[in-house]
Each structure stands twice: as C-alpha cells, then as structure tokens.
UniProtKB/TrEMBL annotation:
Organism: Thiorhodovibrio frisius
InterPro entries tied to this protein: Ribbon_hlx_hlx (IPR010985)
Domain of life: Bacteria
GO BP terms, alphabetized: regulation of DNA-templated transcription
UniProt-recorded name of the protein: HicB family protein
C-alpha cells in the first residue's frame, strides 16, 4: 500500500474531539483519522451498492415472496415490539 500526505485543516473542536477519541481507543490521532476515513468511504461505497441493487429490484416479486414466506408467525425473539 502506498502512502501519501495530506495537510488536514479541521476546526479546533473537531480535532480536539478526535484526539480524545483516539486516546480513549488507545491509538494515535493519525490511526484514528485513517480508520474514520476508511469507515466513511466504506459506508458511501456500500450505500452505492445497495442503491444500484434497489434500482434493479422487482417490487411485485418482492411482495410475492413476502406473501408466500410471511405466513408463519415470527420466531421467539423476532417479534416487533
């Protein structure tokens, strides 16, 4: 994996909160920011995948499957409260 540098300009309050969180997690600020960035990128990419899949979805088929499979009561612990 190649590395690069980026001069981050962040509001002081966010930087201080990140420092506290990194200390709480027992990692360096650099590691904390890298992990946070990776998590955000992964979230956005996952959202894109699900949006594309949803665009291909067949709602009528989905409802048909639910109708056929939804006849049994929920398993214990799976009930909606």
């Amino acid at each position: 994996m190649s590395k690069s540098n980026y001069a981050l300009s962040a509001p002081r309050s966010i930087l201080e909160a990140a420092r506290r969180a990194a200390k709480r997690d027992g990692v360096s600020l650099n590691q904390f920011i890298n992990t946070a960035l990776a998590e955000k990128v992964a979230t956005l990419e996952t959202e894109t995948v699900f949006t594309r899949r949803a665009a291909r979805a067949d709602r009528a088929r989905f409802l048909d499957v639910l109708e056929r499979l939804g006849r049994d009561p929920p398993q214990p612990g799976d009930e909606l409260s």
